[in-house]
Amino acid sequence: MTQPTRQPQPLRDGERVDQLFSTDVKIIQNREVFSYSIDSVLLSRFPKLPKRGLIVDLCAGNGAVGLFASTQTQAQIVSVELQERLADMAQRSVELNALTDQVTVVQDDLKNLLAHVPRSQVDLILCNPPYFKASEQSHKNLSEHYLLARHEITTDLASICQVARHALKSNGRLALVHRPDRFLEILDTLKANGLAPKRLQFVYPKSHKNANMLLIEAIKDGSEQGFTVLPPLIVHQDSGDYTPEIQEIYYGKS
């Protein structure tokens, strides 16, 4: 006899439910605590997802990346988030979408990943990491939740790459979204951990603006040959409307 799915807990103070309209996925958000933004959406769509196997979402926040990715694969997804409040939001979103058979939320430091997944068995790691070094003072008037999510206080790029090296299978992939001003550091850190950069895409807020995001994918034990720079991805038209590419990502094909 099939067990009934546990009903998600009710929303807490300040929470709302948002939906990515190109999917049926609903995400519990809280503006004061954590809300996903376009970087999470783009990351979930950037790599080719394995049809089956094991995917890990590191620095998962409220679970948006893993939940968006779940619509494109039958792989098991493990979402790892250090902050209890955010992990709780992610877990309730998993329940809200009836995805408890596919998506598991782990509240733990990502350095302990191998306590939750087998070594050298992960097909793909997705990570929307903290962008700013802990020494940077910008945006430090944030809540504690945003502060930890955006600044390298509890983890950093090197730690993420080290964990990925141990968890990924040979030819497994790591996909990151990050800031262009750290591009050279990202390349060096990936290569220092046996992760060969393979695909890169810069994201621009408008066609005449500088890039403000990058998406990069690396392969464990891969060759340094065959590095591809994809066409630029532009978010807004001059009118302020989304470009057709972003419109499709958010709302599906018209």
Give a written overview of the molecule:
With 254 residues, the protein is an alpha/beta fold. 25% of the residues lie in helices and 27% in strands. The chain is built from 7 helices and 13 strands. Strands 3, 4, 5, 6, 9, 10, 11, 12 and 13 form a 9-stranded mixed β-sheet that branches. A two-stranded antiparallel sheet has the order 1-2. A two-stranded parallel sheet has the order 7-8. Helix 3 links the parallel strand 4 and strand 5.
Give the secondary structure arrangement, pairings included:
Blueprint: E1 15-19, E2 26-30, H1 38-45, E3 54-58, H2 64-69, E4 76-81, H3 84-96, E5 103-107, E6 122-127, E7 132-133, H4 144-150, E8 151-152, H5 157-167, E9 168-178, H6 183-192, E10 195-204, E11 213-220, E12 228-229, E13 233-234, H7 244-251
Parallel strand pairs: 3-4, 3-6, 4-5, 6-9, 7-8, 10-12, 10-13
Antiparallel strand pairs: 1-2, 9-11, 10-11
